[in-house]
Amino acid sequence: EMDPVERAFQERVDAGQKIEPKEWMPEGYRKTLVRQISQHAHSEIVGQLPEGNWISRAPTLERKAILLAKVQDEAGHGLYLYCAAETLGISRDQMYEQLHSGKAKYSSIFNYPTLTWADIGAIGWLVDGAAIMNQVPLQRCSYGPYARAMVRICKEESFHQRQGYDALMRMVKGTPAQKAMVQDALNRWWWPSLMMFGPSDDASVHSAQSMAWKIKQNSNDELRQKFVDQTVPQAKYLGLTVPDPDLKWNEEKGGHDFGEPDWEEFFNVIAGNGPCNAERLDARKKAWNDGAWFRDGLTAHAEKAADRRAA
Ligand code: ACO
Fold first, then answer.
1. What ipTM was predicted for this assembly?
2. From atom 26 of ligand 1, which residue's Cα is the shortest distance away?
3. 143 forms bridges with which residues in the sheet?
């Protein structure tokens, strides 16, 4: 039997009401949100690294300005999301500590390298495309601050998706070498993009409870299916081949059948053993350590100012 306070909470969630900071919530609800929102924030912040790799090498001034704006947007998304998580009683320093110690995850996708300029287009098209598919329903999340943060984030993500597709469109109309570069990027980013939605539903430990609390609105496999159905025609339009021999339209279900991602690779990457995990974490830890003098200076200044006021 559910206790009456918890039942009243669940009824509010079922009725589509937003839960706001400092209102009563089950401890598990709070913990799940802290986990998901902080991991989401970390993903935005770490997600700047693979693209940042190409800011100094963008092919034109216009592409550079677009990429700079996009990477700055990701930083903004991270800060929004850290604020949303802070409303649940965790500090930003604690969240950073969890990232740096490897306790908190961030999206598997950012542990793959960006080898060519086409990878930047592919990230916009596929990675931001997958992010939108996942984040649009999060605008209806039961927790108010997370839901509201998603509104603006989704608008910016759609710009990111369009700029990626536009960059690739330009390249596939270019030389055969440029078109081959785009195909190669799709070959490398397709499966990792499908993995962004998380493990298959039968292996997803949190989905059932998160859906009951309306933190998640859809299961991992539902969103993965929608992403495949949306993206396959876009690949065709670019004249590219999706690297999945099992991919085919299924008239009866009104969607595509497709192959299984390599789940062993996925679990390996989220355990910290992907191609760039060490490099990504080292970059974040270095940024934190490089900022120590500044944090110390701020603290020293605040203490002196407090002393002066007391004197
Ligand atoms: N990368 C890293 N870890 C993942 C991924 C992934 N692609 N998918 C699942 N996991 C982790 C989960 O965090 C969980 O581990 P934990 O218990 O240590 O937190 C474990 O794998 C089991 O997965 P699920 O039970 O399915 O977890 P959950 O219900 O949290 O669903 C999902 C995973 C869909 C990623 C969810 O957390 C979510 O929607 N997060 C918000 C969106 C987000 O984080 N986007 C970041 C990527 S894109 C971007 O914004 C730039």
1. 0.98
2. 204
3. 19
